[in-house]
């Protein structure tokens, strides 16, 4: 009876918040805390962000905390840096993960996505209309997430691992505004021979981010436009479900391969995805990895399948290709990836990751 309850509880729990999210569809934005959906790690992004079933390293705290049970060594550290739009947007990720024992693991992760050195020219002219360049100030707009992750191997189903995240969100817009938020994620992975399956439920409790505006910095601008504003507001992030499956192949003594797919399911109305209804949208992703002697890796993946309207009024589908390579030796792993490859090269992103595992 207890096992049946444990199997049914996650489904009932998620359905409850799915229905709650549908009720809030009108007031909740579709793209809240979207910096948490960019992704982390060059290996993952080189595979199109397909990780929920196959992740087994220090980035698992982000992709699926249940994967922390498969850490290669007792201590695991990882760092990633990437830039978008000619270096304007900078994304950084760092994590530390450790095996507590043979059945459980713990990880701490930090994410930052921001634009720095933005010029504030509101005071460029003095009261006489003269230009004063020394009055220009600079500020940053940055989003932060702090994740504490825990994973444990199940005792009642072989190959099953369970994990959860507690995350704190901090968003800052210079001296103009700031926000704090809190949310929970839950994940599971199941291994059956060469097959791997995963499920990741993000923001299962619905994440609320409370914004506080600074009236001293913004009031003059709003008064010029004859608008009023509230100094406090709440931003809601609705639940999201990711289902994944992957399979590993040992082709020869030296060559191996992994093929995986994820289905990113949102419940906040129709999005520009391959499968979309008025309530649910499904964004599929596919990725692969070829390995040689567990030392050299070649990766690829496609995601972000969207429909665009051409100049002639006809629609066409486009996909986002991703590529990556990796080298591993003596616990050190260096990964490079090229993601967000588009017609506009300024939108492409080069991701660099370094990871180290040791006992």
Description:
By secondary structure, the protein is mainly β. The chain has 4 helices and 17 strands. A 14-stranded antiparallel barrel has the order 1-2-3-4-5-6-7-10-11-13-14-15-16-17. Strand 4 (137-153) and strand 5 form a beta hairpin. The longest helix is centred in the first third of the chain and has 22 residues, at 2-23. The chain is globular. 31% of the residues are buried. Mean pLDDT is 85; it is low at 1-27.
Find the CATH superfamily. monomeric porin ompg
Largest sheet: 14 strands, antiparallel, barrel
Uncertain residue segments: 1-27
Strand content: over 45%
> Structural class, judged by helices and strands?
mainly beta
What is the residue-mean pLDDT, rounded to a whole number?
Answer: 85
Run of helices and strands:
HHHEEEEEEEEHEEEEEEEEE
User: Can you name the CATH architecture?
Assistant: Beta Barrel
What does the overall shape look like? globular
Instruction: Give a count of the beta strands, DSSP E runs of length 2 or more.
Output: 17
Question: If you consult CATH, what is the topology?
Answer: Porin
DSSP summary: helix tally: 4
Largest sheet: spatial strand order:
1-2-3-4-5-6-7-10-11-13-14-15-16-17
Q: Percentage of helical residues?
A: 10-25%
Tell me the number of structural domains.
Answer: 1
- CATH class placement: Mainly Beta
Give the termini separation. Answer: 40 Å
Radius of gyration using CA atoms only? 22 Å
